[in-house]
Amino acid sequence: MKKWKGQKSCVDRRYSLWKRTCVRVCVSAGVRTSCLQVKVAPATVEEESLPVLSQQTWGSIPLPDGTANSLEKIANAYPTSSFLDNGISFGFAAEVLLCFSGTLTLELCVGDPRPGLRAIFWPVFSSISSAPGGEVTSVPRLWEACSGMWQPSICIWPGSSRERRLELLSLGACTRLGRGLLSEKSPIATPPTFCSLCLQFAMAKRLQARRLDGIDHNPWVEFSRMASEYDVVNLGQGFPDFPPPDFAVQAFQLALSSDFMLNQYTKAFGYPPLTEILASFFGKLLGQEIDPLKNVLVTVGAYGALFTAFQALVDEGDEVIIIEPFFDCYEPMTLMAGGRPVFVTLKLSPTQDGELDSASNWQLDPTELASKFTSRTKALVLNTPNNPLGKVFSEAELELVASLCQQHDVICISDEVYQWLVYDGHQHISIASLPGMWERTLTIGSAGKSFSATGWKVGWALGPDRLLKHLRTVHQNTIYHCPTQGQAAVAQSFQHEQAHFGQASSYFVQLPEAVLRSRDHMVRSLQSVGLRPVIPQGSYFLIADISDFKSKMPDLPGDAEEPYDSRFVKWMIRNKGLAAIPASIFYSMPHRKHFDHYVRFCFVKDESTLQAMDEKLQRWKTELRP
Predict the structure, then answer these.
(1) Quick one: which H or E segment has residue 280?
(2) Total-model pTM
(3) Using CA atoms, how far apart are residues 202 and 252, in angstroms rounded to an integer?
(4) How far apart are CA 418 and CA 305, in angstroms?
(5) Is the dihedral of CA 142, 146, 149, 151 positive or negative?
(6) Is residue 152 reached through a cis peptide bond, with omega within 30 degrees of 0 on the bond before it?
(7) pLDDT at res. 78
(8) What's the CA angle centered on 338, arms 297 and 376, to 5 degrees?
(9) pLDDT of residue 206
(10) Quick one: which of 109, 131, 221, 361 has the most CB atoms within 10 Å?
(11) Which residues are within 8 A (CB) of 50 and not within 5 positions of it... i.e. 6 or more apart?
(12) CB 200 within 8 A of CB 143
């Protein structure tokens, strides 16, 4: 008998059941994302060829004697019930007693594309039947059929005159699919009605929680790995490759060396000097009297604030509206909380021929946005300035969002980590500052983005106590506390900014001026090889249109289902020495194919990095010449 990888050793037995040949086959498989196909040929075939096993997808099932050609055509055999495990999954072996007159194909599907462990109990394909048809059953009924017996277990098929027993080698689970008598020696004259199938289960707890299903793949890991394997200029991930301002570095050094108690725990919800300066600083900007104890929560980066918000406020079945393109953590965080993401796409207005596109041309459709709100809508996620597009939402767009949130009693989770990085005279407006929005808005901020120190991982959430108290509950039962010294350094840095706010000496004035020069440098350079940048109004990023390359080089290497922009980025890393991020990852799955002609670049880079980029692009430009 050929063995599939992971197959248990088992004894091959042959039986005669109502003049049909039966072969017992043991197969073992993992719990998820595969289907097993067991093909059993007539008895005349050499034993070494039994069974033939291969991974397949769920689909039509060839049946002998022309009785049916798909599962759906077998009466009472629809996979409407499954082995619903209520938190327990099964590493399992399937012990199949197959009865056939020709070639029979049995397919068991485990995991995707249908959730949970499933198995089907098959009838022998005979029209002579007075007993109930085959059925799909569940684990509790299987245990009941075998009386929950542990190995070795006995499965019994009652007959009209006597019984025969089939002894299983391990934990048994059997069900009777019809009346009949299993005989190892002589056939019985009565025509067959059913085939019996036994499954043996090795019970095992499911390792991963269901909330992780479908979110295990992270494109950042893949593209970061590729960038490290090749000699590239990394313009993919969003981090500065220049130092934070001197006053911030000095504040961190002081936190490390001055007060030894900064090596110990501080208040769980934030180092008091930090929560106080955040309350004072942002209270003026938002027009609110912010209580540092009730309206501020310090978290492990803005990422931590977002995760805490979703866990605290999104419940099973809640809908969360996400504006796309979106920072890619919003969708998995919604799913982990049990919510359902609902996407609304920014619409691109046409531009004049030869004119570069601008992020301001990507706009919300008021009618479409309004249509996404339902009685189940719990929250809307707003990201301004937007990653990856660099769009700064206008006051009119924010008023539209605010109006709908108030009309439908919806929370707004506003990710504003790039609020100091706006260009060309555009102005960042916090939606919490609009009338009626403070009470329903969480404003998320980041010290890493504010002070060019992404590794510090200090973030915060600002909002009313009626929302923040639930975030505090999650926080105190997860990470509980953020590193004290980093919080102390951020507190000192904000005190510096408060003293210099709005002046030429303010880092929040100097940083966007410097980054604007880098943005314009990159825009010019990318155009030299035929990339068409979309001019961002804010953030670290721009996206570039690669449509010309898609038309000239449509068949880049990669999987058939892989979006073009992903294949293009891999090609660019390997062949041009430049790393970027495919923009399609910032879209929901159904929309990715419509936006696979953009790639994202980070322009918050040192001058030396931009010069290295220019050298790569110059070689690329030379190669383009006829």
Answers:
(1) helix 272-286
(2) 0.71
(3) 55
(4) 15
(5) negative
(6) yes
(7) 25
(8) 95
(9) 66
(10) 109
(11) 1, 2, 12, 23, 25, 40, 41
(12) no
